[in-house]
Design brief:
- The protein has about 130 residues and is mainly α.
- The protein is about 75% helix and about 0% strand.
- The longest helix is centred in the first third of the chain and has 27 residues.
């Protein structure tokens, strides 16, 4: 089945937009961090891993997709940990939504079957 130009455009916008969101999340961590306290924090490692995984995914390397799924799983677990400690905030819902979509959209089924997942558009386009 041939993919229409409209669907290809929407899929491509989703691909680039979602990666831009992930880069923004990682970069915002470093841009908003107070450098006076020094040291390296777990959140710095998480944001750095997110930026690295996103860069690998943009290069369309399969390790990037797997690494993004791992980072998404860690992100979900961090939100659950905060909720377990009673530090739930409204923004945690958005975090869970972003990480759940990341985990799903870079999974093996979405690569082949979902046009609007970040990788689905490339599998559906007719060469």
């Amino acid at each position: 089945m041939e993919t229409s130009q409209r669907d290809a455009l929407l899929g491509t916008i989703t691909w680039w937009g979602f990666h831009a969101l992930l880069v923004w999340i990682g970069a915002w961590h470093f841009l908003s961090r107070n450098l006076a306290d020094g040291g390296l924090f777990v959140s710095d490692l998480f944001a750095g891993a997110l930026l690295l995984a996103t860069a690998l995914s943009l290069l369309r390397l399969s390790i990037g997709c797997h690494f993004l799924r791992f980072v998404a799983l860690i992100g979900i677990l961090l939100v659950i940990y905060r909720a377990w400690n009673g530090k739930v905030e409204l923004g945690n819902l958005a975090d869970v939504a972003i990480w759940a979509y990341t985990f799903y959209s870079f999974g093996p089924s979405s690569w082949r079957f979902s046009l609007y997942s970040p990788l689905g558009v490339f599998g559906k386009l007719k060469a």
